[in-house]
Design brief:
heterodimer, A: alpha+beta, Rossmann fold, 2 domains, 6-stranded mixed beta sheet, 5-stranded antiparallel beta sheet, globular, B: 299 residues, mainly alpha, two-stranded antiparallel ribbon
């Protein structure tokens, strides 16, 4: 029986699996150094038309440099960048059909909102009537009708962001780059804007590439995302695959919360892998990993929301381990419980409990002796 | 946490009043005195003008003796009118040349690596550490026939005859631009250095060539510094008298020189009238400019 691959949502749009699909952007072995620091190291990546792509990573991982190379503000030391199959590595920024929304928005303070949006169109030498029409169209698109005559400093942060977006979209670029687009917005506005941006992207059909350090933002908006670390792409894939089947410990820990157990492979029986860990005993995993060998060191990743918590020992042949509650963090929608397993010198495991009811008495308290259990499909094997 | 203690209201009012008091004491009062002098007549007594203020009882008589005689003379004698116009011309040329040299200089300084900027800034200010008079005198040595400049050009084979620059308008302009260039560079540098680099990247991203980006972004955003620099060069240039006196010739009489010789010949009332008209000539265009900028809604 063929099992579903981890976290496979039904997708209508996945050109990256289609061998006939032609990428709009291709990085081929791109490397960029600043002095002794290698900011981007041997990156190869393809973006497809209409895709919403997110580059995720901590600050300093090279994601902004990668984006700036696409805009033309930095030149790669090695490798090529192709747009629609044409090498644009040496093309200066003002000649690239790529537009960027800057993190600081970089609105021209001496120009009105309408003139900001018209700036790129004027450089194209479009007739005045056409420019005026396109500016009105853009203002309507980002819901800023009637604010065309304001100066940027007369707008709120959210409005400025929309002007920056309208200005970058006005030239109808093949690819829109967004550098930390939500960084300056407060949380509520950020959520609303994320959905508006997705809506806009599917309406216009423009390829979007967004750089962010915020995993929620990347996961909410993107069709596919890439996780970067120290100048390298660690994993590329749809958000659910990245979350449910991370390639290594770095990705697993960067995207979402995870418990990591260290152990050695004890036995392999078909898809069932048994791993012996010092703290939790033998853990059974249901995963096809033909590369695993008996006795090899492995890491087991366990997402907090996939662990069950109970006072009584659960029946059945689930993975289970006893422990003591050390800490309870109430977050509103979920409660994060930290359980010490394997004695006082053991390991703290995080368990997420969904708060489904409003008034139920909290079932767990500090210092409760509890059992943790999880399904064989819950854990994932990571290379050490 | 305790809120910061507010200063007593009286102290606050005193602080607000301070600049006004300063203006009253050191600008308005002297201006009133100069104006009163300009309306008086020259006298051989001490002080060399009449009438004198002889108490409140004879105030009417005092005012009756003030008249516009000196201003009438300024209007009738073409020497003064020409001199005013010539001063404006020299000041305008000085400002334009200082702008043409100062803008690229300030731009290059602002574009230089961050750790170089303080050094470059010191270099611009460095000439101020030597006396102004000595520096202008030094230019005599450079510009005089067979001086440093002629020797250099001659030894390079570029000229065979002395240029005879000294005592010409060119020499005055060289001296003026040299002296006032830092006042153009410093405010320009201050605005250009603050300019957000990402604005230029945004312009390039939207299809602007480097030249277009300069004209549509850098230049308009540096206008405040440009206006400040132009005012700082133009205003003292109009009244300048040391540089034309030392480097200029008989044809380069600026209004400052006229003012100086009039004072020296002890005609204080006429000199005061010259000074008042100079002030009006300077303040009026600036006031109009400010009015226009306010009307446009600019800073």
């Amino acid at each position: 029986m063929r099992k579903a691959s981890p976290g496979s949502l039904r997708r209508a749009f996945q050109p990256w699996d289609d061998t006939n699909a032609k990428p709009i952007i291709e990085f081929r072995g791109v490397t960029k150094r600043f002095g002794a620091v290698t900011a981007v190291c041997d990156v190869s990546l393809s973006l497809y038309p209409r895709e919403f792509f997110a580059l995720l990573g901590p600050s300093g991982c090279g994601k902004t440099t990668l984006m700036r190379m696409l805009a033309g503000f930095e030149t790669p030391d090695e490798g090529q960048i192709l747009l629609d199959g044409v090498d644009i590595t040496a093309v200066p920024p003002h000649l690239r059909p790529v537009n960027m929304m800057f993190q600081s928005y970089a609105l021209f303070p001496h120009l009105s909102v309408a003139d900001n949006i018209a700036y790129g169109l004027k450089r194209e030498g479009l007739p005045r009537a056409e420019i005026a029409r396109r500016v009105e169209e853009m203002l309507a698109l980002v819901k800023l009708d009637g604010l065309g005559r304001r100066k940027p400093d007369q707008l709120s942060g959210g409005q400025r962001q929309r002007v920056a977006l309208a200005r970058a979209l006005a030239k109808r670029p093949k690819l829109l780059l967004l550098d930390e687009p939500m960084a300056a917005l407060d949380r509520k506005l950020r959520e609303a804007t994320q959905f508006e941006l997705m809506d806009l992207q599917s309406k216009l059909g423009t390829t979007f590439m967004v750089v962010t350090h915020d995993q929620d933002e990347a996961m909410t908006m993107s069709d596919r995302m890439a996780v970067m670390d120290q100048g390298r792409l660690v994993q590329i894939g749809p958000p659910d695959v990245i979350y449910e089947a991370p390639a290594n410990r770095y990705v697993a820990e960067f995207v979402g919360d995870i418990n990591i157990l260290e152990g050695r492979v004890a036995s392999i029986e078909g898809d069932l892998v048994k791993v012996e860990t010092g703290i939790t005993g033998t853990v059974e995993l249901d995963e096809e990993r033909p590369t695993l060998a008996i006795g090899a060191p492995v890491l087991i990743g366990l997402r907090p929301e996939k662990i069950e918590l109970s006072h009584d020992e659960p029946a059945g042949d689930l993975n289970k381990v006893a422990g003591e509650i050390w800490d309870i963090g109430y977050l509103g929608d979920v409660t994060m419980v930290q359980v010490m397993v394997g004695g006082d010198q053991g390991q703290l495991l995080k368990v997420a409990l969904t708060n489904r009811t409003r008034r139920a008495a909290r079932p767990f308290a500090w210092e409760d002796q509890v059992w943790l259990s999880w399904d064989v499909e819950a854990g994932l094997v990571l290379p050490p | 946490m305790s809120a910061p203690v507010a200063p007593p209201a009286r102290l606050g009012r005193l602080l607000v009043a301070a600049p006004y008091l300063w203006l009253l004491l050191f600008f308005l009062a002297p201006f009133a005195m100069v104006l009163r002098m300009a309306l008086s007549d020259a006298d051989t007594a001490l002080p060399p003008y009449a009438p004198h203020f002889e108490g409140l009882a004879r105030l009417g008589e005092f005012f009756a003796r003030l008249d516009l005689e000196n201003f009438r003379l300024l209007a009738e004698d073409s020497l003064y009118g020409q001199s005013y116009l010539y001063s404006l011309r020299v000041a305008a040329l000085t400002t334009l040349i200082a702008l043409a040299i100062g803008y690229p200089l300030a731009y290059a300084m602002a574009a230089a690596p961050r750790h170089w900027r303080p050094v470059l800034l010191v270099l611009v200010v460095l000439p101020f550490w030597t006396s102004f008079l000595i520096r202008v005198y030094a230019w005599i040595g450079i510009l005089r026939p067979d001086g440093l400049l002629d020797m250099m050009l001659g030894s390079l084979g570029l000229t065979s005859e002395p240029l005879r620059l000294l005592n010409t308008e060119a020499a005055v302009l060289i001296g003026m631009v040299y002296s006032y260039l830092p006042f153009m560079v410093l405010p320009l540098y201050a605005t250009l250095e603050k300019l957000d680099r990402s604005l230029l990247e945004a312009a390039a991203d939207l299809g602007a060539t480097p030249a277009t980006a300069f004209l549509t972004v850098t230049l308009p955003l540096s206008l405040p510094g440009l206006f400040a620099g132009a005012a700082l060069v133009f205003i003292p240039s109009v009244g300048e008298f040391v540089i034309p006196d030392l480097l200029g010739g008989p044809d380069t009489t600026l209004i400052g020189n006229l003012l100086w010789t009039t004072f020296a010949s002890r005609d204080w009332p006429l000199a005061s009238a010259v000074a008042i008209v100079l002030l009006v000539v300077l303040v009026l265009p600036l006031a109009l400019l400010q009015q226009a900028r306010l009307a446009r809604g600019g800073p």
